[in-house]
Amino acid sequence: MSIVKVLGISGSPRAGGNSETLLAEALKGASSQGAEARMVELRTAEITHCQGCNSCFSDGECRIEDGMTSLYELLTEAEVIILSSPVYFSGLSSVMKQFIDRCQCLWARKVVLGRTVGAPGRKGALISVGGQSSPVFRNSISVARSFFNSIDVEYMGELTAPAVDSKGEVFDKPWLLREARELGETLAKRSEPAP
Ligand SMILES: Cc1cc2nc3c(=O)[nH]c(=O)nc-3n(C[C@H](O)[C@H](O)[C@H](O)COP(=O)(O)O)c2cc1C
Prior knowledge:
The protein is an alpha/beta fold. The protein contains seven helices and five strands, in the order βαβααβααβαβα. The protein has a single domain, classed as Flavodoxin domain (Rossmann fold, 3-Layer(aba) Sandwich), CATH 3.40.50.360.
């Protein structure tokens, strides 16, 4: 059986921050199941914003050459994609949103050109951390769902962590680390073929 490719996308501007720590745990969980797990840190990826030129409508390719160029292949090859983002003003970080907007060319492949994006049976999830006791997670979840749907990935759910604010605070809540690891383990397991 081939090795499951798991791609973690970190959308925090803060290196080693709380959401990235949980993502790293999820990837460790995936690796423990024999998956090939890889993290991309968007803050260092030098990605500019989608310019809405719609040229991807003709061939599904983005005309901008930057840090996204190599990511498109990783995104279409991955069988599991985990997004992680802090809550910023009740939504995703701008770093993560900018990345998602640049996936418009993958949306175009599916919706405009009627092509499939990646192999069937791909799975995705969101990890999100907020500093308030009751952060608004629903906006981030809604965008993550839309993103995964656009790239032919089934949304499997989210791990949300409220009341985690200063850098490293997530280590004070070991159950979150455990839940993240379990999320990665679960996502990395292949679905059993129907009998
Ligand atoms: C610009 C900015 C906006 C934020 N907005 C929210 C918010 O709306 N709700 C919330 O609960 N926390 C908010 N926070 C707190 C972060 O979500 C929190 O510090 C989180 O732990 C950061 O995750 P990270 O370490 O992965 O970057 C905000 C922080 C910043 C810097």
